């Protein structure tokens, strides 16, 4: 950790953030909340309070503390730093803290459905014996999943989103290895596969990101299990001229459709459309960059 912020420094940093950033963290994670003015005391409670009695609890507490410190010391995000410090303290009290429910974060219904499918797979592994069999890997999986959720909601640190997702996948692959005892299949939570998918793009780009590739894989698997007509609609945010954004949304739709056909979906079964900035997911004034509006929506109809 580079430094420990005082109460006054935290207050000043939060004020500067409010002045120079369009990201509003005040509604983040409504189930717990985060207070930038109590970060230091929350972190102190987590670090010097009770110690978990299980190996998984000790590893998970350490993961949350490290993430809280990084949020504060590198990005001055004291809202989410306080949030994860509080989670570490709850783990220290031997509370069973589950991976974040995406419904508690600011995602649309499609994103919630997709992320809940990931969450339920993780919970199935944790409840199936992963906490006891591989506590360090299980703690890493939960912490990186939570990182992916928090960073995806903010939507601007694309490299970190990709890093959290990759490290989550690596941990999950290890937990799925045969040496991890799995719960009987009949007791595993079964997530209903969504028929709607959304992928997101970097600013002024139509390149498929690593996270988007995973969503496209899921869409192709869904189509293979129950083939139907695939509709692909490209979108753009309001940061450029209407005519340019229309062309950009077309390129994004073309990229998504091409990626789907390489995954086995028949080209003549894919309908493409592009609406530019005409259907913003997050309403913004003209000229505003908004990561969640830079997207392609994919629907599979029976």
From TrEMBL:
Its main location: membrane. Residues 281-302 are annotated as: Disordered. PROSITE patterns: OMPA_2, PROKAR_LIPOPROTEIN. Keywords: Cell outer membrane, Membrane, Signal. This is Cell envelope biogenesis protein OmpA. The lineage of its organism: Bacteria, Pseudomonadati, Pseudomonadota, Alphaproteobacteria, Rhodospirillales. CDD domains: OmpA_C-like (cd07185). Residues 1-18 form the signal peptide. It is found in: Cell outer membrane. The keyword S-adenosyl-L-methionine does not apply. Gene3D superfamilies: OmpA-like domain (3.30.1330.60). Residues 188-302 form the OmpA-like domain. InterPro entries: Bact_OuterMem_StrucFunc, OMP_bac, OmpA-like, OmpA-like_sf. The keyword Zinc does not apply. GO terms for cellular component: cell outer membrane.
């Amino acid at each position: 950790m580079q430094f420990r912020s005082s109460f006054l420094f935290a207050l000043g940093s939060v004020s500067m953030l409010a002045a120079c950033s369009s990201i509003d963290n005040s509604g983040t994670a409504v189930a717990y909340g985060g207070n930038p003015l109590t970060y230091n005391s929350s972190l102190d409670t987590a670090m010097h309070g009770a110690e978990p009695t299980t190996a998984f609890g000790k590893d998970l507490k350490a993961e949350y503390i490290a993430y809280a410190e990084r949020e504060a010391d590198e990005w001055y995000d004291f809202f989410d730093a306080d949030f994860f410090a509080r989670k570490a303290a709850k783990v220290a009290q031997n509370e069973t803290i589950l991976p974040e429910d995406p419904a508690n974060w600011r995602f649309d219904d499609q994103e919630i459905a997709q992320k809940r499918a990931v969450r339920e797979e993780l919970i199935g592994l944790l409840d199936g014996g992963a906490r006891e069999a591989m506590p360090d890997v299980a703690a890493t999986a939960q912490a990186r999943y939570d990182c992916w959720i928090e960073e995806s909601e903010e939507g601007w640190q694309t490299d970190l989103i990709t890093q959290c997702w990759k490290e989550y996948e690596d941990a999950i692959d290890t937990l799925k290895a045969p040496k991890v005892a799995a719960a009987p299949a009949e007791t595993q939570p079964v997530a209903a596969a969504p028929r709607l998918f959304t992928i997101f793009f970097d600013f002024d780009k139509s390149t498929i990101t690593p996270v988007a590739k995973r969503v496209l894989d899921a869409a192709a698997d869904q189509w293979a299990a129950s083939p139907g007509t695939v509709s692909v609609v490209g979108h753009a945010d309001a940061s450029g001229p209407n005519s340019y954004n229309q062309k950009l949304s077309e390129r994004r739709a073309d990229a998504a459709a091409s990626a789907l056909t390489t995954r086995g979906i028949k080209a003549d079964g894919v309908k493409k459309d592009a609406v530019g900035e005409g259907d913003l997911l997050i309403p913004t004034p003209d000229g505003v960059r908004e990561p969640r509006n830079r997207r392609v929506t994919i629907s599979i109809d029976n």
